[in-house]
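It is worth pausing here to work through a concrete case rather than discussing structure prediction in the abstract. The textbook approach is simple: state the sequence, then state the predicted structure, then interpret. We follow exactly that order.
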Amino acid sequence: MSKTVVLAEKPSVARDIASVLKCQKKGNGYIEGDRYIVTWALGHLVTLAEPEKYGEQYKTWKLDTLPMLPKLKLEVIKQTSKQFRAVQAQLNRQDVKQIIIATDAGREGELVARWILEKARVKKPLKRLWISSVTDRAIKEGFQRLKDGREYNGLYDSAVARAEADWYVGINGTRALTTKYHAQLSCGRVQTPTLEMVARRERDIQRFKPKPYYELFAELQNGVSLQWQHHSSNEKRMFDEQRAHELKDKLKQMPLKVTNIDVKKKKTYAPALYDLTELQREANQRYGYSAKETLSSLQRLYEQHKVITYPRTDSRYLSADLVDSLFDRLKACDIQPFRKAVLQVKKQQLSTKLACINDKEVTDHHAIIPTEQSPTASLSDKEAKLYRLIVRRFLANLLPAYEYEQTTIIAEANGELFITKGQRPLTIGWKIVNEQEEQEGKTIIPKFSKGDDLQVKRIFVDKGQTKPPARLTEATLLSAMEKPAAFLEEGNNDLAKTLGNTGGIGTVATRADIIEKLLNTQLMEKRGKDLVITKKGKQLLELVPSELKSPALTAQWEQKLDQIAKGKLDKNVFIAEMKQYATTIVTEIKQSKETFKHDNVTGTPCPQCGKLLLELENKHGKRRVCQDPGCGYKKNISKTTNARCPNCKKKMELWGEGEGQTFACVCGHREKMSTFQERRKKNQHGKVSKREVNQYMKKQNDKEFTNSALADALAKLKMDK
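Step two, the predicted structure:
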């Protein structure tokens, strides 16, 4: 009897699929049933080979070997090679006649599966499972409507084009910068323009010159204030202090008469459903979560808890075929604190006429919404908060508009206008999902009639000062990456239009990783929620070719990748363009007369080549490395341990070597290794043996440093996705 292999991206999803398909026999890296064999990757099992695999000349970092433009080949990732062999064995079984790709339904998920198949040399017929949630119901329905694998060849070509472009541009640019300037510098088609946006905002702040402005108010006896407004421009601020005080004096004794009362009924509709970027933005603003933290939590809500749909989506709408499932999703949400809102939704007619239903706005995946599965008590605090955001937005989109009455009162004194506004809720509508928002809609409306003379208590001038643009946070940087047109120089209207059409730089799935990489490589840093470019980041932007800093260039590349996915552009044309661009980058860097100044140089010469060592620091401790990547000398000088300070209980650092090793804490406490061991024995009633202490220390020594020697670290650099 012939069998079908189902290839999932992760073990957890594989177990869910195996359960639905009644596969129970567990093997080495797979689960087998009568008809199906379910196996899994661990994310990527296969990747593009490192530069040194293309020839001896690339094993050492030298400027004269660049650009590197080999025909790229695949290699199995060493750390997960055991699982690759297990997957390969199942794919190549004689009784297996068909393969179903069940990796994440997106560009990167397609790449995970196809590279495994290519490296395993499998040419069997392909089917594609394309689902937006991993509940049992979604999996069953997905298997009833499997797609022909060939329908996704364009998506695979796009994924390969993206990966190869990042290799050629990133590897060549990074090696050229590093060898030219003897510094750990990297560039990429998405990360570099993203860093430039942070730098540009910093320049705007530094160039900003604050200006004082003045606002004029008339405070009435009943406590209501009306604000002065210019007749023609509707401007409420004055930048002339003398004029502001002259107006105040002129109006001090003048009667204020109501000349117009305008009452309008207005509606506001619920904000659109969440796509990944919008949810990351809101989570950062509300809770301070990083984009990476939000994405990781959403993945757990999707894969493990199965309470939300596929999170890596760029759509904020639903397709019409989901209408029939809305009632079941409502039942899953019928828990506190949503019961009141769910009750209101059940009174509505749920049909394709809902504003959130729009087939034209749904690409590979619809917006993030709850599944038909209710959450359990096992959600973490972070997961619960994100789930509540998704449910509230989902319920809001099924409810009618918030309706209110807006009243504008205009009064006049000696030809000068004063205005105040207020609103009165008529129908709460979607705002019932959030009581705080419901209260925010209520403002005091003065009870006046046209022609009334108002009792003025005082007229006063309020002074303010224009503020510089705010520093970017992860929330606003995500917005900038999504809509980077504002970061172009003035006059680039054509490029702004291109950016509007492409959906920005990077993708919803990769923006969090780009931000994280810029932070981890010390090109920018966080100060509270604010993102600030570092000295290293500023220097890097001075050294990279100017074209690579523009968001327009990478947005155009994303547009071409989309064309490849749709079969409108040959991927080989795009790759040839990327090779040419990589050559241009290398040439510009080679010819540059710029220099790089290290801000972490020590006074200690390298024992191998004599150049001064650099001191690097990360969460694991400190190490010194040679600034020449060709030398590769490195030495750990301290490491953060799990040993707690007896005074303040913080983790201590371990300095020195051999018997001279000493623990040190930021509070000032210091103790030698021998003293530490004695204290450990006493605290654990003498049960700690010398062997146990040695094992403890071995664990500390085995810790990896993310900032390894330049040659080691940069050889393994992950390029932009």
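Step three, interpretation. The two ends are 41 Å apart (CA to CA). The domain at 212-269+402-465 is CATH 2.70.20.10 (Topoisomerase I; domain 3).
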